[in-house]
């Protein structure tokens, strides 16, 4: 046998051939080492799992169902009724009866476009990646944006109207209530209070299959 482990005929001994195990979630190839020793991790070639299916139940519903639907509503709101969208950003007592200026309408439509973009990015990240770090960084960025959203709303609306929950209109519940709720869920998920992400295949399972 040569140093590279080949026989004189060029064939590779069975103990050095990779072993392939296939289950419903992934294709894992784990090399078999002589004397029954195994590598402590599987080498993943392909996986059908994504973070939308690996998140804990509450974050899964909030981030993969509820939030995309709310962002779709935020996208169509200014497009279908720009005037009402602009006026409803403030309480009825503070809203102006004047038709929004051209610049205000452009900003409203651009805001709707941003909502649509954020929705597509969220769906793209959560339904394609299997990397928890990618999802955590994405949700952390969204949490920072939530804080900025609430700050901007409070700055223009005023602290009194901002905290006057009983007199919030529909847009107030969207701008403040839903945003604050999403921020709470993101924070709880990031600190691990809502459970841990499911693992596609653990090292122990992979080793058991190959022994």
TrEMBL record:
One Pfam family linked to the record: DUF7704
Keyword Membrane: yes
Domain of life: Eukaryota
InterPro entries noted in UniProt: DUF7704
Keywords of this entry: Membrane, Transmembrane, Transmembrane helix
Residue ranges constituting the DUF7704 domain according to the UniProt record: 52-195
Record field: transmembrane: 61-80, 106-127, 134-152, 172-194
Name of protein: DUF7704 domain-containing protein
Native organism: Lepraria finkii
